[in-house]
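Table S5 (text form). Sequence records supplied for joint modeling of the two-component complex.
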Amino acid sequence: MAENELLAAYKSIPIVTRTLLTATILLSVSLTLGVVPFYYVHLDWSLIIYKFQLHRLFTPFFISSLGFNFLFDLYFLFTYGSQLESSTYAGRSVDFAWFVIFTSIVSAIIGPYVGAYFLFQSLLISVICLWSLSNPERVVSFMFGFQFKAIYFPWVLITYTSIMSGAIIPWGMLVGVASAHLYYFLNHTYPAMGGPNLIPTPWLLHKLLPPQEIAGARFTGGGTTENVYRAPAPAAGDISSPTHFAMISAFFIYNQKGEVLISRLYRQDLKRSIADIFRIQVISNTDVRSPIITLGSTSFFHVRHENLYIVALTKWNANAALIFEFCYRVINIGRSYFGKLDEEAVKANFVVIYELLDEVLDFGYPQNSEADTLKMYITTESVKSERAIMEDSARITIQATGATSWRRSDVKYRKNEAFIDVIESVNLLLSVQGNVLRSDVAGQIMMRAYLSGTPECKFGLNDKILLEKDPSNRRRTSNTVEIDDCQFHQCVKLGKFDSDRNISFIPPDGEFELMRYRTSDNINLPFKVHPVVTEIGKSKIEYRILVKANFSSKLNANGVVLNIPTPLNTAGVTCSVSAGKAKYVPAENSIVWKIPRFQGQSEYMLTAEANLTAMTHKKAWSRPPISMDFQVLMFTSSGLLVRFLKVFEKSNYQSVKWVRYMTKAGNYQIRF
Amino acid sequence: MSDAKFFQRGKIHELRLELNSDKKDKNHTRKKATLKKIVANMTMGNDMSSLYPDVIACMAIPVLEVKKMVYLFLINYAKGKPEMALEAIPTFRRDVEDPNPMIRALAIRTMGYIHVDKVTTCLIQPLRHCMRDQDPYVRKTAAVCVAKLFLQDRHLVENAGFIELLRDMLVDSNPSVVANAVAALTEISERSDHIQLKLNMAIASKLVTALNECSEWGQTYILESLMFVVPQEPGDAEMLAERIAPRLQHANSAVVLTAVKVIVYLMNYMSKDEDIANMCKKLSPPLVTLLSSGPEVQYVGLRNILLVVQKHPDILKNDIKIFFCKYNDPIYVKMAKLEIMFRLASEHNVEQVLSELKEYATEIDVDFVRKAVRSIGRLAVKIESTAQKCVEALLELIQTKVNYVVQESIVVIKDIFRKYPNQYESIIGLLCENLDNLDEPEAKAAMIWIIGQYADRIENSDELLEDFLFTFLEETVEVQLALLTATVKLFIKRPTAGQELVPRVLKWATEEVDNPDLRDRGYIYWRLLSTDVAAAKAVVLSEKPHISTETDNMDPVLLEELLMHIASLSAIYHKAPTTFIPHCKPRFLIPSPTLRRQNYGPGRLIHQDSYEHLYSNNGEDEFDATAKQPHHQRLSYHEQSFEQVAEASIGNQQYYEQKINAENPYRTDTTAASANKGGGVDLMSFDL
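The corresponding structure-token record, covering 1360 residues in total, follows.
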């Protein structure tokens, strides 16, 4: 039985790798045993050409000296060869065979010039090299746990061999690396840039190596099916062929390692293999300087969220704002469905995500994407929903296409309540001289509506323009706020707001963002910061930071944190504070001062001294600004107030409304 | 129930066994689990197509979740296995007749994705029915499906009456249906040689009414289609713009930017200046609000703002503070902001801008710092009153001794010298202290130019030049040309100091260097000097033309085209879409009695001529979606020529350069000599 298992294991190795392994073992062993004479196998072009010793074209690639290293080499060949053949090439053994042949030809041509007559090492390293190029981000451990990225693997091996053999340059291996890189360029990089594949797998090989039946699975050769490794063919110039179309052509979600978690193609102009291009160009690139990358006529839009990359592709001059908004929306839907959208959530719910993507994006055109409506017919508990869908389909479809697509009509609550949260983020940029360079407030009005039926809501603020229109309110204008601009949830009737500045709407059920506004007039800055930072010589910096709360003493701020940057060469910091705790955090290059509770009108002081180590290069410290974080409840920097919220419903129920205000730090930065 | 466990490589034969197992399978839980494994493997890129027959067999299971997974599988693999796709047809046939509208829509939607001729043939009849289905969800799905069908077989769609059906949908009672029909028509029109979407005011007005009830995406599609309205009567454009304006308050930036695009477009057809000014006022706040979205949308917004303010400088002219960079803005946002800051800088705000720029020049990112330094120099050239302060700022920066800052400063100081001759020569001494640090050709050439220009003021100019000449043969052509000219200038200004150097340089330039430009220039100088020194003096020391930052302005024809593509990729790259999207129809302002006169160069005229030629035989100004292009021969000639241009340049350019965000894409040049009109110097470098 054991023998049978061994045979089965042997047979389970993909065919090309298997052949390579067998040939190597047979030849090397027989050479060592003396069955084959040594002078009969090395590469020598003159003998090939003049004496017609054709076997010399093959033998040099399978000769290795027996020993400990031989086992290593076989192991490498087995591991990386079969990985390439079965996963990178997705079982297209023909293409893998062509790779081996191509690199062998190149090595055989270059080899003799550099004195390499036995080319097993170059064959092996070219396999490893292609593997490392295809999996650049994988972590490889080598020799007692020494870890590095796969892309460096060939070079580590070469160095290792060179050292072990006594500082002899392993030319054979270098030749192998060169040939693999040449192959990768011609077959992958160049076509990825839009060029033709200059080294297509010869037709003859397809004949010789028909699709293999391996372990019951049928792999097809050629490029008609999923083409995992090869870059897509460039857009053909033929007008009638479907090469390029508007809007989103494909949508992917990747994790940080570049593994595809969700892949959905909407148009035939792209292949799944395009996913690899993004991984190479963006995820493995440390210096990405734009959220949009265009290669040829394919554009990749990406948004990073938690530990994910949300990526949309288009081959058209598409609406970039729309695509990014759609990516944001996917994140929101994910949050609404799964609590948060991260790798774990995506993996745990991928089937639902596919269902959602099929629904919210049709042929690359975003459709109704209100989570509330979607939840009526796409749910995580499939069984329950299915019966519901069958029964309610007509109602659902009206909902999904109707004028109030965001609300179901059958909502019922025993107690009708509505909560309004006014959340303001204050942005501040203070110059070195203490002048306000810019200050503005980005406000958000969140609403949680627990109201039955189809309620019509009217909402009023102390908005200056509105109040000035109304003559009875003239005298109160001192208490108004001038809003620079505002934006509303799609439930708000924009036409009505435009004509008489009334905010009226039928709210979605549950929590939503009713409006966003922006104002830059008369802003009450909750905190004033006076930094005095002096550099004493080159070895010391003195900080004296005074913070004053500028709001009513009846209020309190929570979670006040100041981040005070220190130079990169800070050795240590001593600091003392009149409230809270301060400590130096080397990882952030800053002193972090936390004051959990900060009463209005009070002021606190930090004094600190940073000792610097001597620096050799003379680049000056760029002095990033001090940044601040805080939350103040029941306070709005803009002075905005909610004046009323009226709810009208057919059944005329009473409803209870609550308002809460909060101001928090947006970008609160003080230069010094 | 977590599905994460399915994310592992599955063996095909095992999956097949699981699918075909005879074990009791209550509620099909087993089948579902296996299908999930298959979908997970598909996601990971493992080829599952050999499971085709087994998966198709699952179509019979009456569970919606299973059906959806099977459909997903079909969409993925049908193209490679057309014969297998046929087996799915009976199920599709049943589904399109299903009483449940969700099932009908699902079947139509999925069939549209399967590019197999037989499936397409089976789709035609049901699709017609679905376009008139009583359920709006089915109708809206069917509308998009026509666009899908068009990509497979455009003749079929054009000749089988689908366009007419779509057109009827424009007046559907349901807003989602209208929006999707509009989207489908727009796409078909953008690709077809025969079909051109034209909307008259009556239809446009109906569409605008539908806007109020549409989903946000639907609003975008409808707004997009309004770009095909050509106002004919005075007042049309004003009325339409007025009705679209409320969209500027929408929370979705796609709606806002598309509305901006339509309004900017309609302004071309407004007669009164005050109407335009009025509209401009409405545009400012929403554009600023874009900057409180996520960084990606901010970036899109900023690149578009840069376009809009070039055409309408009044917009945002008082809002420059909004564009000051935050320390933690992503680099792409910072770069885009910097450009707008420079554009909006004026007498009133220049002090603030300058102090900001000085701040940025001390930051870490090299490209950003360089751009900041360069902007300081350009500011000096742009606004005369601030030149002194800019020069002081640059000198301060030079004192920092940070290598790239020094070099960048020297490059822009050269421009300042050209713009304001004989004002700032006192700083030359300071510049000369940094000669040894120069290693970039551009900075070297700039410094050499300064030495040559002021050879008579700099005491040791001959020594300085001689130092540079030491490596003459290794320098780049740019530096060699500068050296040649500077040496000749030195000789003319101070014959005694230069007489030794000149013959040496001339000899190198004419005998040792291969570059023809350099050689020719060498010969010209040589001949001039040896025949008529006075003439040489007149040529070499002639008055230079004035430089200004006007050369930064975009070519007005290109700007006009880009404004019609606001929010799109081409507006972000500031490149006409025809340059990177093959076979894309160019857009231009279509003449009408109300079109404002555009005073551009002859380029515009050519466009309009060809336009007249193309469209003159079309119907009146009624909506005419199927108007056949009488001269489509001419049109395809156009397309062909774009393609040829694109191909030709592919041949010339290195493929490596295709990546758009190539290094240092923001470099600009203010010298008149390098003013590269129309080629777009001030663009992200985008080579195709």
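Note: The radius of gyration of chain A is 34 Å.
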